[in-house]
Amino acid sequence: MKLELLSTFTMGTRFELVLAGDDRSHLISVGETAINAIEEVHARMNRFDPASFISFINNNAHEKEIPLDDEMFELLTASLEVHRASHGAFDITVAPLLNDWFSFPSSSQDNEKDDDLDDRKPIGSQSLIIDSDKRSIRFDQQGISIDLGGIAKGYALDLAADIVKENNITCALLQGGSSSMVAIGTPPGESGWKISLPGQDRVPYIRLCDAAMSVSAPANRVRKMAGDKFSHIIDPRNGSVFTEDRLVAVVTSSARLADAWSTALLVLGSRPADLPYTITSIMSEGTGDEPTWDVQCDYLDCVKGSYFTSKSTQGD
Amino acid sequence: MKEWDRRSFMATTGASVAALSWLPQFATAAPQSSDGQVNVAVIGTGRQGRAILSQLQQQPSARLVAICDIDERRLKSGQRRVSGAKAYPDVTSLLDQEPSLNAVVIATPTHTHRAVAVTCLQAGKHVYCEAPLASTEDDCKALATAARESGKTFQVGLQARSNPIYKLARTFFRSDAVRNVISLRGQYYKKTSWRMPSNDPQRAKLLNWRLDPEVTLGLEGEFGTHQYDVFNWYLNKYPTSVRCNGSIRFHDDGRTIPDTVHCELTYPNNVILSYQASLGSSFESQYEVFYGSNATLKLAWTAGWMFKEADAPTQGWEVYANRQQFHNDEGITLIADATQLAAQGKLKEGVGLPHPPLYYSLADFLTSLIQDKLVICSVEEGVRTTMVGIAAHRALVEGTAVDINFE
User: Fold this and answer.
1) d(CA A169, CA A20)
2) CB-closest option in A24, A30, A71 to B81
3) Do the Cβ atoms of B356 and A51 come within 8 Å?
4) Which tens digit of pLDDT belongs to each residue from B218-249?
5) What distance in Å separates the CA atoms of residue B205 and residue B71, rounded to the nearest whole number?
6) d(CA B171, CA A246)
7) A174 and A181 in contact (C-beta within 8 Å)?
């Protein structure tokens, strides 16, 4: 069995596909087709590209109804469903707030900061009017900008995984930004692809097989401005910047749902009691030598043989 | 293209192409539906077809009514990216069942363009056809004849002609900023196998037409044609002969089509275009360079630069221009609508193109339909440049220099 590694830089990060099989040229052509699919998603959904379809929606939907194709309709609908189920903790309209935080001059003094930023409230997904019969979208006010950054990476990986599977590749790992991934089959002789989560001394890991996983944490992207911490994650419910030392990994059937729920759970801090999705969640609090881990395994037995099962057999 | 450009083009090239005499195209039927929108179908929903779909989606004057592909999976993947368009598995059923159709965009494999385009023209549809136009000289001529006889609008997808940066750079070139043309260089480098996967051998053959020696024009034709056109269009001339070598440097997977080629095209006055294409490296991607005694122009699809010689006369505007350093050379960034942007203090925002070149090419096609204007790249111009691509491929296959004439 041969292994082929293909990669591309898109969506502001690196995507890697590891494909296993006997026919090298088949693996390469499948990998290239999958990468092309990822790049096509980026071209359609990158809100920083004025030529993308999402920019077209963002620039025009407050004036007129924009017809949606099946792909965009399904993705926007899925985003709104997670928005509702997470009680607003996942929100694709949070982008303008992110712009505000990141464009805030870093030289500002403390006394100027509060006035400008603490009043900012997100517009909220309720301002996106999606007509399911006509398959169209309209914004009920100006200033809305949809950012699919919390779900598009996973969606692109789902498309790539479909291409890999329909071309009879049964052993593969696809990942984007080292935070979203899809595992297809298992490496020979193993129970799953060994995925390490960020940790201190004892690196926690899980075994992923025929499932998708996404990891969210504000770590590495927290920056200090005017004495306060900032990160790329905003709590859409109140517009505050999320800087807790928390990490969330979600395992479920699709990378797009894993992406959306890992962001939502990071903000929520715990699973909603009425969670209508079957997901496995792994959450850690604190950054010390022994962060506390909360593991709820609803989707597959992917934590079997992992760090967490060995931990629990020690009498946890 | 401005009218005087077109006239000078005709004056310099018209006489030598008696077999393809240039005729103005007049639409004989209403080019658009009653509400001012053009009803469009896209035929061929592979990668290029899907790129066309996403650009048409943003054209206010286009109503995408249908898509068509003989491959079921491609048709489905196209269908996911359009709203309200019907899907057809063949051109005949598309034309039979969509009487309101005004125009088609053809993005099928090169060797199928003739059959598809002729059928659509005979059904009274305006045509935008991807380049190269065809893979044989006979098909080129048949297409030109069919387009002329139909009286329909026919635009060839040689996108550089619609690209705002290329149009701007051409005005510099035509106004003598480059002065003596020293030499020409172009390249297309992309690390990719060109192979499409399929478990079904028949489907694999269909999808991998670019690797099929029976029908492909190879790198020297499939991509070369797009880039030769930039030189042809700027110089208002066509090369008179071409030599081409190639080999398999990287993708040693049983293919017989070279993955790396070097071509030398000789223009009148012995100006040489050196063209390279490879699927084994992606370094510097795709560009065209015009070396001149006063300045050199480098064009890279969504960007362009002018490198002036130290002794070249100053034109004044360069003082305000954006510049970019390339090792020891400083390029003046070519920006479309620079004067307007400079007045608004937004010059830096104009670097690069807001839309892909394909967007402008499709917009030009729609404009020529709605305003009944001449197309930006006619079938005759497309045929000539395609013949250059065909000659380059023949030169590679035969291992000899091939003369190019349009008789």
Assistant:
1) 7
2) A71
3) yes
4) 999 999 999 999 999 999 999 999 999 999 99
5) 12
6) 58
7) yes
Is B358 an interface residue toward A (CB < 8 Å)? no
Number of H helices, E strands in chain B: 13, 16
Q: Do B83 and A28 touch (CB under 8 A)?
A: no
- How close, in Å, is residue B172 to chain A by CA atoms? 27
Model ipTM? 0.87
pLDDT digits (tens, 9 = 90+) for B153-174: 999 999 999 999 999 999 999 9
Q: Which of B81, B195, B199 sits opposite A69 (nearest CB)?
A: B81
| CATH number of the B3-159+363-375 domain | 3.40.50.720
The string of DSSP letters for A180-207 reads EEEEES--TTSSSEEEEPP-SSS--EEE
Q: By C-alpha distance, which of B42, B232, B18, B237 is closest to B141?
A: B18
> What would the pLDDT profile of A204-245 be if each residue is shown by its tens digit?
788 899 999 999 987 655 555 555 666 677 888 888 877 788
Average pLDDT of the residues in B245-265: 97
**Any idea which fold B162-357+393-398 has?**
Dihydrodipicolinate Reductase; domain 2 (3.30.360)
> Does the beta-carbon distance from B193 to A69 stay under 8 Å?
no
For chain A, the domain total comes to 1
pTM for the full predicted model: 0.89
CATH label of the domain that carries residue A67: 1.10.3980.10
